[in-house]
Amino acid sequence: MPFTHRHLIDTEALSRADIEIILDRAAGYAEQNRSKNKKNDKFNGKTSVNLFFEDSTRTRTSFEIAAKRLGMDTVCVPVAQSSISKGETLLDTALNLDAMQIDTLILRHTQDDAAQLVSARVKAHVINAGNGKRAHPTQALLDAMAILRRRGSLDNLTVAICGDIARSRVARSNIRLFKKFGADVRVIAPDYFMSDDFNALGVGIHTDLKSGIAGADAIIMLRIQHERDGLGIDFSKVAQNYISDFQLDHEKLKAAKPDALVLHPGPVNRGVELTDELADDPEHSVILEQVELGVAVRMAVIDLLLSQD
Ligand code: NCD
């Protein structure tokens, strides 16, 4: 079955077969990225534009490196110094970049449906690099690839996602992906970081870390997204309790499978989500493997989208 999507908006639209095609293509690129010559010229002469309305280190750099390794020219729009500060809308900005005959538009935005809206109007292939609280598909794909590498299969895993669930697009995209592989997915958070929409996603809901990670193959820890809309709590007042109840350390990890993997999309706030010892423990932590495989996954996505032209 061929890959037929024009854009990558979320994992929701991808079938299990689509995901397998992406991860399979990414495996080849992971090898290329470790070889002497990291670059091919498959998409020489094509142009990739990063349009990021939110801060980013990993995702933005990863997309830029991915496009360059495929031979593309890349441009990062400096949003803070752009005409967006003069009141230009997202759609007008996107249409103007599209008029420059670009090939891929990589979009990060605060609005949940930004990539969807833009993709309906531009000729370029749109890749969602994180939209609002709803979707971050390449993060979910690279998380899946990191787990696949260590586990050998994505079938029927127990995956726990813990932290600021309410504001997490990483949680939502991962749930949609792992459910396609028959996973038992659980979300773990105190009430103030939980959100009603998770009831409809077919996940187990836990307010206790130990019960949530019991028997887990993989645990995805999430950062507290203070920069997004407030949830009506003063976190500084509950921070100490949060850390004692929800920070993952080697002791609490004993509730999971003995070889459980610990993931984090980054940026990590050391000493909040995870202890330093666990974040840096190569037996469990795959945080830097996620980052490495992120480049390969993004190369695969760009490749599969552009190959349809
Ligand atoms: C995440 C994001 O931006 O959604 N980070 C990332 O892309 N690596 C999660 C976060 O910012 O906490």
Tell me what the structure shows:
About 40% of the residues lie in helices and about 15% in strands. The chain folds into two domains: about 10-135 and about 290-305, Aspartate/ornithine carbamoyltransferase (Rossmann fold, 3-Layer(aba) Sandwich); about 135-285, 3-Layer(aba) Sandwich (Rossmann fold), CATH 3.40.50.1370. It is globular, with a radius of gyration of 19 Å. The strands form two sheets. Strands 7-6-5-8-9 form a five-stranded parallel beta sheet. Strands 2-1-3-4 form a four-stranded parallel beta sheet, with helices on both faces. The protein has eleven helices and nine strands. The structure holds N-carbamoyl-L-aspartate. N-carbamoyl-L-aspartate binds near residues 139, 223 and 265.
From the structure above, extract its key features.
Rossmann fold; 2 domains; five-stranded parallel sheet; binds N-carbamoyl-L-aspartate; single chain; alpha/beta; 11 helices; 309 residues
Indicate how many domains the architecture comprises: 2
What is the overall silhouette? globular
CATH architecture classification name of the largest domain:
3-Layer(aba) Sandwich
| Overall average pLDDT | 97
- CA-CA gap between termini: 17 Å
For the largest sheet, list the strands in their spatial order.
7-6-5-8-9
Query: What is the share of helical residues?
Result: 25-40%
CATH class of the largest domain: Alpha Beta
User: What's the assembly state of these chains?
Assistant: single chain
**Spans of 5+ residues with little confidence (pLDDT < 50)?**
none
Q: Which compounds are bound in this model?
A: N-carbamoyl-L-aspartate
Strand content: 5-15%
Which structural class matches the secondary elements?
Answer: alpha/beta
